[in-house]
Amino acid sequence: MIGKADVAVVGGGIVGLAHAWQAAVRGYSVVLFERDAIAQGASVRNFGMILPLGAPPGETHEQALRSLSLWRQLLLDAGLWYRESGALMLAYHQDEMDAMCELADSDMGHEYGCTWVPSKAIAAKYSAVNTNGLLGGLWCRDVLLVDPREVVARVPAWLSKEHGVILRYGTEVQSVSSQHIATRHETWAIERTIVCPGADLDTLFADVLSEASLTYCRLQMLRTVAQPTHWQLEPAILGGLSLRHYPVFESSRATRTVARRVARDSPELDRWGIHIMAVQNGRNEVVIGDSHEYNSAPKWQERPEITALLLQQLVGLANPPSLKLDHKWTGVYVKHASRAAVVLRPLPTVRVITGLGGLGMTLSLALAGEVLTAW
Prior knowledge:
By secondary structure, this protein is an alpha+beta fold. The protein is 32% helix and 28% strand.
């Protein structure tokens, strides 16, 4: 069988869905290939948090804000759950407070929509926060929550119905050439192909990807059972450990003090790359994470000691009525040492998009538009 489309997208995770959407709204005919019945990679193994705070200052942060706006459009058009939650990074140590206040008082903090909130104001407004020893928190305005399971499951059908995207789920692409895509049962004539492989660096264009200086990162996360309806976490919650993780805090002397304290007092947190975040989704479940093991082979195994550390850190920040776990999982993404995303051009008519690390949800929608506009 021979099919024909202007654009083929290979990969049904959020990066692939973003490119399929952006191609369709530009008037291209699109076919979307996904080897599984539903995407199984990092797109369904994350917080569902669009978090510009995590993006490096400058062009990448601006891209994250554009992506946030596009998310609002997509979610409204597709009728999906979301919440403009904001985020609250909590400080329980003086060095954490110093680093957060430094950002809040700077021009950069204004660009990131961050303000310092005293502990009394947090206690008065957010009953779910653990206020024992709390010094205050950094409020981050530009944060949006989605349910990644719902996005990956429902957006493809919406793209098909509203934008005419042809879906080929459960179909593995075996080869890509300048003008053709081959699967086991079909050959497609394609003008442009966008390959979104996630952490699979071995199937398509493996030779090109092997030279792209990509690093594996394995992470571990948890999800509780649904909490009682009277208990609401409200904003996304982050701990002071996240100061070590986000580039916007790198230049702060106080952040370096935090890093030295953690290395001295809690080396197990450094060993597993833990920085704690928690969000409550539309089903009232609390999603908790996460750990980071770099240069680790992409093995899908759970480490019980990481689960224990994540729960220990969570109760220092918030007080969910139930810590009973509904699900535990590991995930793998790939990232580049210095670039927020990797866009490869193995052929004039082919782009390979990967290496977004933990910013896949945050950057993908804007990145997709930029890739198509520049092509």
